[in-house]
């Protein structure tokens, strides 16, 4: 992943890495200032995997309280964000074959989750709209495939499955040009780690993404992650990538998602070279630099 020298533009992005402990709003303000967050409006993608592991109301409250401008939160339904999955071990309920039949139940569970987690109150406090991509796309409120395809393929090679071009809700498309912030609750998972690049995978509308978008033995997962990133990176700029490390009160951020993710992985003791979706992303979006990570860690220790 780091063997090939990055292009000049990627190298500049790779240098922007911030690692900081965040416990209150002053810490968050300092972190975002160092990260040089900017924009007249913001599209924020949290990580609401299940009812036990998710970007918390506290984190969102701090983040939303520090951003000046219109803010929208975007997320999709998952198979596990429901009352059945408040424990450490996820219990499958929604499957690729029954997801649409369970649509009403999934919607009801999402409302339950927003209340249960305290997130509903935080969104109301900051006047932030929550757009659910599953709800929008399943309701037929998505942008035409050809329109998104043209925009994406001006910047990147085509996605593997063109159906994915039809996964952008009209509400989200109307916000293009805003600053995108992927704020991920990062922890070790079966594909080694959930990180800010992978966080956009949740914008694929299908709640049971472990089916056709993971593929057998996760064979399709890295490409699926790369492709949904191509779509949203084509529509939103600048982009910032934040990893909140589980149980550490530590935040890792960068304008280069691979840089932010590699640093978060190293802090956790995971070798980023072994994370397949990061290897793939580095070839398209730019790699990371060991020197930048070492420097940021030294600054954290001396703070």
Q: How would you characterize this protein structure?
A:
The structure is a single chain. The chain is an alpha/beta fold and 303 residues long. It has one domain: 3-Layer(aba) Sandwich (Rossmann fold). 41% of the residues lie in helices and 15% in strands. It contains 13 helices and eight strands. Strands 1, 2, 3, 4, 5, 6, 7 and 8 form an eight-stranded mixed beta sheet that branches. The longest helix is centred in the middle third of the chain and has 15 residues. It is globular.
Write the layout of secondary structure elements.
Elements: H1 8-14, E1 17-21, H2 25-35, E2 41-45, H3 57-66, E3 70-75, H4 103-117, H5 119-126, E4 129-132, H6 133-138, H7 145-153, H8 170-173, E5 179-189, E6 192-194, H9 196-199, H10 221-235, E7 239-245, E8 250-254, H11 257-268, H12 276-285, H13 290-302
Parallel strand pairs: 2-3, 2-5, 3-4, 5-7
Antiparallel strand pairs: 1-8, 5-6, 7-8
Helix pairs in contact: 2-3, 3-5, 7-10, 10-12, 11-12
